[in-house]
Specification:
Largest sheet: 2 strands, antiparallel
Strand order of the largest sheet: 1-2
Number of strands: 2
Distance between the termini: 98 Å
Structural class: mainly alpha
Radius of gyration: 30 Å
């Protein structure tokens, strides 16, 4: 019986202590667990609220709020004796151009959300949501192309 206990101790693997604990540096293993934050994303309303909040924040940032804050340009400017809404060149931006861009990004985000949520809907509703979402995304791509081309000088 005694020899069986000694044999079991020899078979059992030894637990290795890391060197920082072994040499008594008074570093102890923390007693916490890493966990994820529960945002309640299983509810559609919570997902929609977070998506909307991120959309608005990113639309304002991508729209060029820093250009507006740094060098404010009035909503309507005069170029060559004609009124213009879009400032030519990439160094400045009008307030109207900023608002157009924010609205376009929000419209693209709504279209992308419709495309993403359409796969969970029934077939008739699916086709309508996909069509509207695709239409919104394509319209925003065309509008952004027109604005960028006007700024760069491709459209005059």
């Amino acid at each position: 019986m005694y020899s069986l206990g000694i044999a079991m101790r020899r078979i059992r693997p030894k637990i290795r202590i890391p060197w920082i604990f072994k040499y008594k540096l008074k570093l102890y293993k923390p007693k916490y667990r890493i966990a994820t934050i529960n945002l309640g994303l299983e509810k559609e309303a919570n997902r929609l609220m977070i998506y909307g909040l991120l959309t608005i924040i990113l639309a304002i940032l991508f729209g060029g709020i820093f250009l507006i804050a740094y060098e404010f340009t009035p909503p309507l400017i005069e170029i060559g004796g004609r009124a213009a809404l879009i400032y030519p060149g990439l160094s400045r931006e009008t307030l109207t151009e900023f608002l157009f861009t924010v609205i376009i990004f929000i419209m693209a985000s709504v279209g992308a959300y419709l495309l993403r949520s359409a796969v969970r809907a029934e077939e008739e509703e699916w086709t309508v949501q996909m069509s509207i979402g695709l239409f919104l995304v394509l319209v925003t791509v065309i509008f952004l192309w027109i604005i960028f081309s006007s700024k760069v000088g491709l459209l005059r």
